[in-house]
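Run Dehydratase through structure prediction, thanks.
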Amino acid sequence: MFYKPYGEYTIGDTWTSFGRTITESDVVSFAGLSGDFFSLHMDEEYARTTQFGRRIAHGMLVLSISTGLLHFEPGVIAAFYGIDHLRFTTPTFIGDTIHVEETVIDVQDRGERQGVVTTKHNILKQTGETVIRAEFKLLLNRA
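Sure, done. The structure for Dehydratase is below.
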């Protein structure tokens, strides 16, 4: 989505990513990198006793993977500007396939050379359920 310079986005522009399946290896690797070994993610026996009935992927893992599904063009992106209204709405299980749907909801000039594009960032799984929703803000360079 973020391959055009600032000034070429209008409110309502949309983009959909390709899919990516969340794997056991993703969950274990993320636990090792983040230090988040919470039982709901790592302990199948414990997870069976929860409302989810099985292990779930870390919400922050799914959010992180979603950024890898976006198209970031070098030279266009000046900086990641922030995330607002982040919500983890439905669990993502090992084996679920996620994709991202982006919709531009705001554009704001930041001087002559840059601007901030805000998108509604929805991560959905193969069932059509939204697993994470947020507003992403990116500082983009003009052409």
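DSSP finds four helices and six strands in the chain.
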